[in-house]
Amino acid sequence: MSQPVLSLKNVNVYQDNNAVITDINLEVFPGEFIYIIGKTGSGKSSFMKTLYGDLKLKQGEGTFVDYDLATLKERNIPYLRRKIGIVFQDFKLLPDRNVYDNLLFVLKATGWSEKREMDVKINEVLDKVGMKNAVYKMPHQISGGEQQRVAVARALLNDPEVIIADEPTGNLDPQTSVEVMQLLKEINQNGKTIIMATHDYALLMKFPSKTLKCDSGTLFEVVQRTV
Ligand SMILES: Nc1ncnc2c1ncn2[C@@H]1O[C@H](COP(=O)(O)OP(=O)(O)O)[C@@H](O)[C@H]1O
Ligand SMILES: [Mg+2]
């Protein structure tokens, strides 16, 4: 059995000094697709922020993509983040530059410098998400669903072990949500671990997978009814 990509023992997730979720025990293995569900304010985003170093792990033990979260130093956060890809609800593309330059910006910021290599990589990830023909479009010239595809491409740039997606379909209509979901599923089938927060239960029913629920300060696995 392979090593878990994420392992949490007796972890509390904090916002300031408030414990948002307590006593999380969880292992996620390579190739899994995990949903984190729960109503607004239940702690889904806080949980994910704790994984990518936006919130400190102040209580409990955790390792994520080989980093010890409890002892994670500020200076190591960028290296942790290179091993994961993050997708947000609001896409977060830079509005002042085209798709190509959005991706180029991230490559340069994460240590790439060889022009040809960067060009090959940008074309490769855009191809993966079906957005090759939008390479010179500005974000405002493409639809929300297309922007989210580009955001997924951006998350793939450094060939991450894990993709964290925080309500990636939250701003999309149902049909577009399904398309983005199909893309994430395909990426998962190609071997990437995905942890995705959502409160879209319809989507969950369409694409069933292991599901953890955030509720009343706890995080626990739920068994999905498929009817
Ligand atoms: N930046 C913040 N500072 C303080 N409290 C916050 C912050 N962000 C979220 N919270 C609080 O943490 C709790 C969990 O929020 P959040 O993790 O955003 O939940 P969800 O993503 O499930 O909607 C809520 O009570 C929220 O008010
Ligand atoms: Mg949230």
TrEMBL record:
Task: Tell me the InterPro entries matching this sequence.
Answer: AAA+_ATPase, ABC_transporter-like_ATP-bd, ABC_transporter-like_CS, ABC_transpr_LolD-like, MacB-like_ATP-bd, P-loop_NTPase
Q: Which UniProt keywords apply?
A: ATP-binding, Nucleotide-binding, Transport
Which Pfam families does its entry note?
A: ABC_tran
Key word Transmembrane present in the record?
Answer: no
Parts of the chain that traverse the membrane: none
- Asked if the record carries the keyword DNA-binding, the reply is no
Among CDD domains, the record links this protein to: ABC_MJ0796_LolCDE_FtsE
Q: Which residues form the ABC transporter domain?
A: 6-227
Domain of life assignment: Bacteria
Q: Name one GO cellular component term.
A: plasma membrane
Could you tell me which PROSITE patterns the record lists for this protein? ABC_TRANSPORTER_1, ABC_TRANSPORTER_2
Q: Which GO terms describe its molecular function?
A: ATP binding; ATP hydrolysis activity; transmembrane transporter activity
Known role: Part of the ABC transporter FtsEX involved in cellular division. Important for assembly or stability of the septal ring.
- Assigned protein family: Belongs to the ABC transporter superfamily.
**What name does UniProt use for this protein?**
Cell division ATP-binding protein FtsE
Lineage of origin: Bacteria, Pseudomonadati, Bacteroidota, Flavobacteriia, Flavobacteriales
